[in-house]
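To make this tangible, this section ends with a sequence with its structure tokens:
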Amino acid sequence: MELQHINLDQLKTTTVNVRKKGAKDTDDLVPSIRSLGIIQPLLVRPNCEGFEIVAGQRRYHALLKLADEGVTEPVPCMVMADGDDAKAIEASLAENIARLPMDEIDQYKAFAALVSKGSEISEIAAQFGVTERLVRQRLAIANIIGPILTAYRKEEIGAETLRVLTMASKKQQRDWWALYNSDDYAPEGYRLKQWLFGGNSISTDNAEFDVSDYKGAIISDLFGEEQYFSDPDEFWLLQNQAIAKAKEDYLNDGWSDVIVLDVGAYFPAYDYVDTSKKDGGNIYISVSNDGALTCYEGQLSRTEAKKKLKAQAGANDEEKAEKPELTKAMQNYLDLHRHAAVRLELLDHQGTALRLAVAQIIAGSQLWQVDADPQKANTDAIAASLDENKAQAKFAEQRQTIRNLLGFDENADEPVVPRKQDWDRRVDVYEVFAKLQSLTDEDVLKVLTFVVAETLASGSAMVELLGSLLNVSMSDQWSPEDTFFDLFKDKQAINAALKQVGGKTVADAHITSTAKLQKDVMRQYLDGTRKPQKVEWMPNYMAFPMKGYTKRGGLDAVNRWSYVKRHVKAA
């Protein structure tokens, strides 16, 4: 930038200046400029007719008033480079945000302009020293219908009312605006929030199902213009089934994913960009507290949209994978239980164990040092759960048998093959060799089979390969218990699992229910409180090979199986 003195007739205002209100309120500036002149130069940039003012509109209007008094000296200006709209908006906002207060609409338009130029919310907040929450609050004004915005600019409604209305659907806003313009009372401020979200009044207009399917009473007002469901529970049962059907239709139509938000959850549209179906756009279904649905079709978060643009441009930077449906703790839990069942089954397949041992000697493996698998649990709860696993207990019994064959002491908790941290307690190799010389071939093979099983690495691709090869059935050794349900957290996966346990109708009826409630319903089916007989169920995660419930991937056991299954086919 450079300082120039520019004649007043070469200056004009510009659309990039964020101040739309109060720019001509210059009564406090005129006396100061008349006495002292322009202390802070205007920020301008050239255009085809001279220069446009990026920051300094109030000083400019003050100078126009002084020009009427005959004061027409050149104006000191800092001249910016031409054509940089984003930088011009930032410069204007940076100056105005600390001066004469802009209202929410000015700030919203300024922030929205920066977002359209590619700025992130965190970047806008840092640039102007405000919180990200304030930026998001201003961007939420995009949800407000035009007549309400106009009324706010005319100071006919207050700021608190405007802020509450950002959380309302377009239909709720139109209903409130009609009420505001009628002779009836229109709630404002905190009463408006109660009007929007309080009570159980659910209009029949919000039903996504055939109202004739509703068996309860329908209440009409005195004039019969509005009708309400008397039984909210029955409404939500039918509404959830309709939502589940809508989700299914979207998926069948080829959309990548359909996300049903929690009831009352706000969808921040400003964080998403319109994206076509073929380019990976998703469907977001927003459900208000009064049951009204808003379907946001073809939406992709700005972060994901940027990733796709980078990929299309040939960017090679490794991007962070989408959040998998299982936490690391849950995957550790599943690895340990599956490992316990597979290695027990291995004891009955001595030929397989012998061949596995030879392969490990030739090619090596994670544990061929040789050490016993430490079976390390991430939490005490997972460790306690593993202690209850039937396969774990049976394996401990077999360990004692092998220790007796080798003449070891009778402490069954000690592995036959020492773990890495216990190398100082390793027995003399010649003593073990001499003992094996006295055993029959059958007993030696039994020891070898056990040692191979004890050194099978938990969480490895070999567990997945053996589980499939040996047709391991987890139902013989494990059943769903509290630790499993505590670690099962992905709501979309939980709803799919509920469909297996209770059927499609039950799962659809609970599609907007909390994850906790859906898991409670599953438990009721499994312990027999929902039906005369218990439902027998084994989750996809305990199958060999493992399967997930969503398309998001990120499951270690599934990835391991994808790697090894080609070798099974080749064999």
Notes: The radius of gyration is 35 Å. Residues 328-476 form one domain. The longest helix spans residues 232-252.
